[in-house]
Amino acid sequence: MRIAKIETAEVNIPLVTPFKTALRTVNSVNDIVVRVTADDGRTGFGEAPPTAVITGDTKGSIRCAIEEFIAPNLIGMEIDNLDGMMKKLHGCMVKNTSAKAAVDMALYDLYAQSCRKPLYRILGGSRTEVETDLTISVNGVDEMVEDSIKAVKQGFRILKIKVGKEGVKDIRRIREIRAAVGPEIRLRIDANQGWTAKEAVRIIRAMEDSGIEMDLVEQPVNAHDFDGMKFVTANVATPVLADESVFSPEDAVRIIQNRAADLINIKLMKTGGIYEALKICAIAESYGVECMIGCMLESKIAVSAAAHLAAGKGIITRADLDGPSLCSTDPYTGGPVYEGAVIRMNDNDGIGITRVPAFEP
């Protein structure tokens, strides 16, 4: 079975509510989707969001990378030569990690189909269910409290609270959300690079001193401020999660060896797909550092690929895969089943997505 064709299309799915972080505000999932067709007619699907503020990738750059560089290098290759395909994919151009991720997951989809197994079983098959958190966007305190209560009523036991825009005022946000949802709900605090190192320590310590338990604090400082991240990690009790600071296996090694963070957040759009993400998993396993699997503003295709990775690797102990829950509709057929906070893997071959209307006439 060989790669016969690689195509791109665009999807636009409105969000239930605007997605607001310290970096941006978004109203819809407006992503590039990829279809890789084999010479026997089987298809694999992938997806890439244009998250220029984090990855540098735009819709135009993603389509250009796939159509003009990646596709010409891959067409004609054998699907069962997974390592060869991945070396060609990652070696044909530098950066462009979102474009690579979209094609990578489509190739893994086809490869697992050729093995007649669900992808998560190919990747290790450690579990059949993954529990995700739900993101609470940055808004006024009262609105965030209301959104948090609504999420808990929907069955979410873990909330990811976006902060980082108003410094010490974030303390009130977290304090009031904790009071509203009670002590049993796990809170993950995501500053999206919004604090300085000293500010982060002041805010986190204030919350700790108030008795507010937090599952973790994600990316408190600028992505390139490794020393600042290390300072925060050394001076607070709450686990610190490195997100935008970790794109590659080399980044993961640097963070871990310098004890700049306690946990690593893997996102396929940062790593360039599953192939490089597996390397980070292996590194984390060797150091005994747990990982979280996260997503950008992605719909069910890309999030399902990430869910397969999470279900396959035991070192991934946390999931932030709420993209489909934030979308107002699900235009696709097949794939894992999303039931509130729980993502249930099914036994369909590959990733399991069988229909993507964007490629239909």
TrEMBL record:
Residues annotated as binding substrate? 24, 135, 160, 295, 297, 320, 322
Instruction: Quote the record's cofactor note.
Output: Binds 1 Mg(2+) ion per subunit.
- Per UniProt, residues of the Mandelate racemase/muconate lactonizing enzyme C-terminal domain are 141-239
Alphabetically sorted, this entry's keywords are: Isomerase, Magnesium, Metal-binding
Query: What EC number(s) does its UniProt record assign?
Result: 5.1.1.-
Q: Spell out the SMART domains in the cross-references.
A: MR_MLE (SM00922)
Which cofactor is recorded for it? Mg(2+)
Q: Which InterPro entries match?
A: Dipeptide_epimerase (IPR034603), Enolase-like_C_sf (IPR036849), Enolase-like_N (IPR029017), Enolase_C-like (IPR029065), Mandelate_racemase_C (IPR013342), Mandelate_racemase_N_dom (IPR013341)
Q: Where does Mg(2+) bind?
A: 190, 218, 243
What is annotated as the active site?
Answer: 162 (proton acceptor), 267 (proton acceptor)
User: Which GO biological process categories is it annotated with?
Assistant: peptide metabolic process
Membrane-crossing segments per the record = none
Keyword Magnesium tagged: yes
MF (Gene Ontology): magnesium ion binding; racemase and epimerase activity, acting on amino acids and derivatives
- What family does this chain come from, according to its entry? Belongs to the mandelate racemase/muconate lactonizing enzyme family.
Under PANTHER family, the record lists: O-SUCCINYLBENZOATE SYNTHASE (PTHR48073:SF2), O-SUCCINYLBENZOATE SYNTHASE-RELATED (PTHR48073)
State the name under which the record lists this protein. Dipeptide epimerase
